[in-house]
Amino acid sequence: MSSLRYVTYIDVSHNKLEGIIPNMANAIELYYFDITYNKFRFVDFAAQFPIYKRFSKFMYNPQDITDEEKTINTFIGNSVTLEMFSDGRFIGDEEYVWCKLVNDGIHYSLPVPGGTSRKLTIPAVSSTDIGTYYCIARHPQMTQYGYDYYRYLNLQTGLIHVKISPCNPIINGVIKTSIAEPLPNEDINFSFETSNTGVTYKWTFYDLDNVTEIATSTSAQVTRSYSSLGKYNVKLVVTDAEGCNETFSKGIIIAPKTCPSIIGTLKTDTPEPALNSPMQFSFETAATGLSYYWTFYDRYGNSVIDVQRTPTATQIYTEDGTYKVNLAVTDETTGCSSSFDKTFVLKPICTPSYSWDRDGEFHTPNSAFGNFTGVLINTPTNFNFLRYGSPLANVEYSWKLYDPNGQLMQSGNEANFPVTITKLENYKITLRISNYNGCSDYEKIITGQDPNDCIIPSKDRYNDSVTIQPSDNRGVQVGTETTLGLGYIYYDYSESDFTFSWKAYDPNNVLISSGNEPRFPVTFPTTEEYRVDLELKDIGGCKTNYTKKLYH
Fold first, then answer.
1. Across-strand partners of 192?
2. Which end of the chain is more exposed for a tag (fewer CB within 10 A), N or C?
3. Is 140 exposed, middle or buried (0-12, 13-18, 19+ CB in 10 A)?
4. Are 262 and 273 in contact (CB under 8 A)?
């Protein structure tokens, strides 16, 4: 505070300042210093007090409360400690007086006997200890009685309210009923499940308005019934041996009989119904003892065209359109019913034909590696039908996957057809592409491949279009380095999709050179027949082996 050397007047009153006050020893011209109506304590200016008290006007009384108002809830017989300066900010030589509000018409409060320390402990709380307390702290030097009001500082806590909870322990429990969903006029047994002992009960049963009492009881268990639908409240007051009580309540809903839903699925015998062909409907369920009522509607959904009452139903449709069928199933024992609807589309009969706007080819992620027919078993594989790498526009798809025995495994109607095969055998995929002017059928045989030992025959890699070729079309020269690589591949081939393992052998089957780049430089020293082997491995892990014999 050296910059305040010539300051004569400082007034920081009526703020909420707190903490240690800076040293004003260098303010030699200062005569007026007002810090009243803040949150300062004796400890905040005790060190500088010998200097400040010499100022003509050093005003520090009053200050705000030191501790916030609070409430302490306890039980009879417990020990309670009240504390001033609970945050630990005090000098140590303050003088304390604990007081209790009395409001007896004469006194506002009276000192608590023995309450002359920073902490006041009530070792065993009794009913006479209920009330409101506060503590006053004075200082031998800084509380200057009779000298000047502004230097007669008495610090005080906020009010501390001591309240007694009359009952301990608390009663715990829950109202139980014998029926979870009671019906009208059905007897309901009410009881109270608790671990407390020696308790008494008072039950109160209310009418639908939940105000009018219709019955009371003091029994541990009570039986009641209700004739009208609605929600009724039940109140129970449980009292222990010491007279302490807790109140519990429960709402009872009286509802008409409800039927559980019959769980099942309405199914058809074909995922793609056809015109003029019998279509069978069935209901797949674990429920038994059911009766059936089938309702078939026309393609406009308005008129009923047929009803049947058998567990399965058969219908033949002769016109294309969107149809709906409804099935009502009834439990013959309970009389409960559930209803199920199914809609399906019958398309016009189409004779497959070629059309440029339905032309394309099957494509899988493996197609990029020239693996046009192989599919890794137990691995999800997504099939598409593309033309020039793009999906067809404005078409509908009808996919089918058949297992090695020719049984339909799966069908789909989206542009993507994800499949997972499980055997190292041949499967068949068929696809019908339809648009506004007709349909086209396509078929593809796919072969399951082992992901841990995937070998693709050379005839199946890029449709047998991979060849080993020297870079010089004139052939291979003895004693001259020759670079071998793959010949032109018509399909969308990328070297980055493969790893290469080249090996060259002399006429005695002795390895003379190897390499792992797309191109293999090698020198043949004599005019004889040599052999070059190539293992081509795609990033999917499938290998293809090639061999080429070279003559010089």
1. 175
2. N
3. exposed
4. no
Pick the closest to residue 235 from 205, 213, 257 (CA basis).
205
Distance CA 64, CA 39 (A): 5
Q: How far is CA 76 from the centre of its chain?
A: 48
User: Is the model's pTM score more than 0.70?
Assistant: no
Helix (H) or strand (E) holding 50: helix 49-52
